[in-house]
Amino acid sequence: MSRGESKIDISKIGAMLSGRSGIAELMEDLGAAMRDGSQAMMMLGGGNPGHIPEVQAVWRRRLREIADAPACCDPMLADYEGPAGSPAFRTVVANFFRTEYGWDIRPANVAVTPGAQMAFFQIFTLLAGEMASGNHRRVLLPIAPEYIGYADQGLQPKTFCACQPRIECIGDHAFKYHVDSKRLEQVEEIAAVCVSRPTNPSGNLLADEELEQLARFARQRGVPLIVDNAYGEPFPGVVFREIVPRWDPGRVLVYSLSKLGLPGTRTAIVLADEELVRRLAVMNAIMGLANNNVGQALVQPLIASGELKDLCRQVIRPFYADRLAFAQQAIAEQFGEDFPYRLHVSEGAFFLWLWLPALPVTSAELYQRLKRRQVLVVPGEYFFYGLPEGEDWPHRHQCIRITFSQSEETLLRGIQGVAEELRVLHRGA
Ligand SMILES: Cc1ncc(COP(=O)(O)O)c(C=O)c1O
Asked: Which residue's alpha carbon is at the smallest distance from atom 15 of ligand 1?
């Protein structure tokens, strides 16, 4: 406590939302490294999108167009929109998905939220926790590891239950997670099923058939299937395998503008049944009055004209595919054929998920050692929450996440640092 401050009594919920949290510490570390300005830290952590010049030029062009059009600029800056988002934007989004995929989506099925992180907080709070019946329901994550940002969400403890996946080892240096349906069937009292697709951190992309199995499972349990498309189709479309996205009543699809290069606009889109959309709008009003208008104004005409979709296909996806190939090659060269490691197959998103089956320390310890070497990664431990207590699974301490959205030079120097540290550790083991 600093001088002159008195102690504040914190509520239980307040303590949960402001105490120790993996995501908060990660954001602190990243923020500190960004502010450092020395460029010394190799930023292989975090989910910041790459700065793609061609994409940034589009946002700057849109800002100029908006500034030159008072009919767009003035309400964007000077008006609170309704809490579900701008009606014109919601109509454009609904039309886009109707035309693109033939889904029966109307503006009343579209909610805008202040970023996907907030959308998940709202959705999980609506669905999970203590029910009117007195039962406690949890959000089921069919595959652990899952997105670190969910871990501390919800207003009650135990918001999540997660399942160990089946692990398929591929060749000498690759592996892939699959849903273990036997484990899934054993879980009771679920509020929803939720997956990020592609998955942060592993780069896994559930195949269409696997997702349909989850949809059937969710329907049988009478709960929604929530699909987090932060990196998914059609925008930003950082997927490296063909999939056919699908929406049906009872399914909740969440999209974000962040990974398009617009995290500063804090804008996400939820497609869901009308009742959920109405409830999200009320929550938005209570928690923050209205959404940020800027992201909606920037992308609305680009969604309507198809320019955004083309930008994703022609520029954003190839950019990340190139970075991925570079990072995979750097790992193969720096680690060498004989080193014991496996990379999860990369089917989407910005991350390499590195499994070190012979790691002599935990990944949390490896993270600290790498930080001292000026290499910032994310330790895997954080992504394995919600698993049954007492389940002994060494794998959860043997993985790290490496972001490949940064420059090739940063990637190469960072991966060299990881390889050197691992060699030191293995020599000492
Ligand atoms: C899988 C996943 N979902 C949701 C989010 C949150 O995104 P937003 O910036 O829209 O809050 C992220 C951000 O990294 C993410 O990786």
From this structure: 230
